[in-house]
Amino acid sequence: MDGVPGHDGDVFAERRAKLAAWRKTGTAYPTKYQPRDEIGPLRAAYERLEAGGEAPDVHRVAGRLMAKRIHGKVSFLVVKDMSGELQLFCALDALGKDRYAALEHLDLGDHIGAEGTMMRTRRGELSLRITSWQLLSKSLRPLPEKFHGLTDVELRYRKRYLDLIINDESREVFVKRAAIIKSIRDFLDGRGFVEVETPVLQPLYGGAMARPFVTHHNELKRDLYLRIATELYLKRCIIGGIDRVYEIGKDFRNEGVSYKHNPEFTMLETYEAYVDYNHVMTMVEEMVGAAARAVGSLTVDFRGHEIDLTPPWPRTTMRAAILEKSGIDIGADDARTVADLQARIKDAGLVDKVPLAPTWGTQVDELFSETVEPHLIQPVFITEHPLETSPFAKKCPHDPRFVERFEGFIAGMETSNAFSELNDPDDQRARFLQHVSDFAAGDETAHQLDEDFLEAMEYGMPPTGGMGMGIDRLVMILTGVPSIRDVILFPALRS
User: What mean pLDDT do residues 103-132 have?
Assistant: First the structure.
């Protein structure tokens, strides 16, 4: 395990010997250290203290020991809590001979508490002149070298706790992630949405086109699925009369991994009765703007691009976007079948770039993914998607091959997906049955026939605008982090 701290046998043994000595004092792992001042606010309160000055009030801080300089009669420690770092000014005359000498037995990584008064050294360093200190927890393994950080990317993901200790930037990403999610909740709550929780273990997976994870319940003697989406349960809430509903939770899809894919990810889904997907578009751009302002500004830097999230965002149909980038008009008479469309792809010289697909709708999706999606850097809504890839969206009145659906793209990634939701149970049944045929033909991502959901629809579902948004991708963009693994605390990795 090269690069993993704590595997130097001599260092480990030495620290264990120190712990044994601390245990004899009865103070190795005390229960608490209160009262305590957080370091960040404490520093802010004394920021104007002049060099050589000292304040009379006594303060207590606690944190992890990150640096240590032991000298003759004056030594310096640096402790760190979640809010910041602070130097401890340790003088022999203030601590006494025994407590001063005991500083030698501290190691980097130990948690300590200290009490004293705030001062600024003659060199200008804001410090706590301590009169007492206490070991709170012993670090038996040495930390990675502080000034070079934890640079092994794989190790950062596998040992995230070390990444958080050493790399302040990583910890700040997850603090911002929490702020982004809070801002989304505040936005939706302010609009009268009700947050609910729906099953993670489901008797039938649905609400998206994806391969599920399967598990088994011993008592019920049946297989269950980790949900791939919350959609069908949230629609049941709409049918039940909760006119605005949302859920932020984990979805699971048994698929590949990439810089923007993880098999376990966080999704926001919202459903609002009596509106269509145009209403939802406006809501999405306003909600993303609110989240951006919660952690910074409406202009963000991501993967070398400066992205302006200011509403309103452009709207364009998938047909127009594909025509612009590939020269192929998917709505033309000579592209109405999958064979015709594949012939147009060949004529355009794209046959080596665009994978062949079994149906017209999936072929359109492949063409879009390869020729258009990478170019969608600034925020944009792509509307009117193929019927075959959108089993829960209403057909467009002007062309029933397409549906009232949009995907929101930022930085070449889909970040949101929304429909004017299908609420005709007969049309929904027909689409389910088509997907059953597709599944039998080998499409492992095709949707299953959900009789329970159809029964719920038969009680009457109002016109509804629904939306799903990938929280992890949104956090990537708003924090400028290029990989989804850097915004998920404990991402899925190979063994």
Answer: 96
Please name each of the domains of the chain with its CATH number. 9-143 (2.40.50.140), 166-314+378-486 (3.30.930.10)
Question: Residue 305 — very low, low, confident or very high, per pLDDT cuts 50/70/90?
Answer: very high
- State the average pLDDT over residues 305-325: 97
Residue 16 is given by DSSP the state H
* Antiparallel, parallel or unpaired: β 399-410 and 380-386: antiparallel
83, 150, 382 from 168: Cα distances, Å = 10, 11, 37
**Alpha helix ranges (H) inside 390-466:** 425-440, 451-457
Q: Which residues contact 390 (CB under 8 A, 6 or more apart)?
A: 361, 403, 405, 419
Structure tokens at 440: 């039998």
Q: Residue 26 — very low, low, confident or very high, per pLDDT cuts 50/70/90? A: confident
Beta strands in 154-303 (DSSP E): 194-195, 201-202, 213-217, 222-226, 244-252, 264-273, 299-302
Residues paired with 127 in a beta bridge: 87, 119
Looking at residue 327, what is its pLDDT?
Answer: 96
What angle in degrees, to the nearest 10, is found between the helix axes of 318-326 and 360-371? Answer: 60
Question: DSSP string spanning 318-379?
Answer: HHHHHHHHHS--TTSGGGSSHHHHHHHHHHTT-TTTSPP-SSHHHHHHHHHHHHTGGG--S-
Residues across the chain: 495
Please state, rounded to an integer, the average pLDDT across all residues of the chain: 93
Peptide bond into 35 cis (omega under 30): yes
